[in-house]
Structures are given as structure tokens and as C-alpha cells.
Amino acid sequence: MSRCAIMVCTMADQDERREWKSHVTVVLADDHPIWRSGVRADLGENFTVVGEAGDATEAVDIINKTKPDLVVCDLHMPNGGGLKVAKECGELANIVMLTVSEAERDLLDAVAAGASGYLVKSTPPDELRDALWKAANGEPVFSPQLASLVLGEFRRMSKDSGGVQPLSDREREVLQYVARGHTYKEIGEELFISPKTVENHVRNILGKLHLNRKQELIRYALDHGIQ
What whole-number distance in Å separates Cα of residue 51 and Cα of residue 177? Predict the structure, then answer.
């Protein structure tokens, strides 16, 4: 995964940016204190770290207490990892996985669990700040490679199981542009819609993936007698 492909969203225009949060509160969760220290130093003055955790259980507790705008967590922490954090706290804060893993299963599981972003730890500091700022303000942030995987996942689920919420023609069109590395602004210009509308389509796509994967797991559990 190239560094330039880590995040596909560009800066919103200045008028939109003024409507965003002027300051972002963050919880950092990773079992390596040195990593947490490095991210804290990279965040800059517009972010305030209100809590840190070394495992998923501690992270969930801190998030419930501090109600941050953003949670940046590692995928493979002790006691459930980032997936547990996303599942239990995805309604309380925007969750971004910052991980070394580029595995397809990890990407899809993170999205299905409720993460609104997935970035690799090699992301340069300026790109990381930009991505986390957008994530804190509600924008999904992920790589073009993930968009391609999401498309593939919908195709697989459509073949393998009934009742899957399909993508609309427009959602599929938007996702194909994202998979090619286009920014939200560029996609909007191509499709004659606003960048915000593009963002809403991406959010709807991720929401469908989350629901479809959840339904698929329930069906699997019932079929295999798992209670």
C-alpha cells in the first residue's frame, strides 16, 4: 500500500471547514506506550488527548467516561482488540484503526464492526493529522484498496446469501471512483454532486456493509447451532 494511497479524502473547502469542530478530543488505545507517545506528539495543537489505554477493555471504559470525538486504536490489542472497541463504542465516537495490518479480512472486519477509518501506521504525520481531523468530523477515511475490497465483498455476499442490501447504481459508481483513488471533490465534479453528497454515499455504503455482515454472521450462527 503506497503512502499516497493511505487516505482518499481531501481537505474540505474553507467554507465547509469553518463549520467543523475547532478542537478534537481523542482517546489513544494501543498496547505499546511508545506508539501512543509518538501519535500524541504528531497530533498537533488542534487535538487534545483525554485518555490512553493499553487494551480494549480499558479503552472501552475510558471512552465511556470521557466521550471523546475520536478514538485511534490498534487492531490487535489485548482483550478483544480494536474490533471490540468499535463494536462497543462506535455509537459514542468516531473509531479509526491505526494498524500495521493490510490484510483483507482485517480491513473488512474493522468496517463491519463499526470503524469509520482504517489507516496504516506508516502514514506520514501530516497525512495522519489530516485524516484524523476528517474522521473526527464524521468523514469516513480509508484507502482506495479498501474501496475495492468493499466492492468485492458486496459481490461475494450477493452470491453467497440472500437478503443482502444491495448497492444502488449511484453508490456503486461512487465506490468505483473511490477505488481508483479519486478524492471526494473529484468524484463530485465527475458526477455533478457535492463532496458532501459523495461522503454521504460512502457512509451509506459502509452502513450497508456493517448490516449485511452482521446479518450474515447471525445466519451462520443459526445454521451452525451457535447461540
Answer: 37
The residue among 94, 144, 146, 101 whose CA lies nearest residue 120 is 101
Number of other CB atoms surrounding residue 129 within 10 Å: 16
Within 8 A by CB and 6+ apart from 97, the residues are: 73, 74, 75, 82, 86, 110, 115, 117, 118, 119
CATH class of 145-223: mainly alpha
Backbone angles phi, psi at 47, to 5 degrees: -120, 140
The model's pTM is 0.70
Q: Which tens digits make up the pLDDT trace of 112-159?
A: 888 988 988 888 898 889 889 989 988 888 766 666 777 777 777 766
Pick the CATH number of 23-142 from 3.40.50.300, 3.40.50.2300, 2.60.40.10, 3.20.20.70: 3.40.50.2300
